[in-house]
Amino acid sequence: MAIAKMSVADLEEFLRKEFPQAFTYDDIRIESADGETALLRQRFSERMLRPGGTVSGPTLMGLADFAMYVVLLSAIGPIGLAVTTNLNINFLRKGQPGQDVLAVAKLLKLGKRLAVGDVNLLSGTSPDPIAHVTATYSIPNT
Asked: Domain named Thioesterase: which ranges (predicted)?
């Protein structure tokens, strides 16, 4: 297992300082991050829903991208300029209204310049993913 370079508390402090526009409202909570995996929870709100009462694609993509960023930072430390270079999402089933959405992120490969990971998105307590994401991040020279 990799040794995390940032704890959950470190990640939260960094994100509140560097990205207050995205991490101020406490609707997303980092439940764990260990340098290889991360678990995030987005509390349900009506803003997540699209017509028809399902969790919207932008909500799921945003949470998945954020989860990938969190697991990457937990592995490499506070490098704010690491950026998404690719994100691919497969929507598998309807996210249920009234349920929190969980993001289970895992680094698959961590190189010097690129990191590849995947994220499973879950609705409430169901073990069946509502979406599966693969993402690549570019890591700047430090």
From this structure: 52-124
pLDDT along the chain (142 residues), means of 10: 87 91 81 97 93 92 97 96 97 92 98 97 94 98 80
Tokens representing residue 43 in the block = 């509390």
Domain 8-138 architecture: Roll (3.10)
Read off the tokens for 131: 């979406």
DSSP string, 14-45: HHHHH-TTTSSSSSEEEEEE-SSEEEEEE---
- Is pTM beyond 0.85? Reply is yes
Residues 6+ apart with CB under 8 A from 52: none
Q: Name residue 61's beta-bridge partners.
A: none
Q: What does the block give as tokens for 83?
A: 């950026």
C-beta of residue 91 within 8 angstroms of C-beta of residue 50:
no
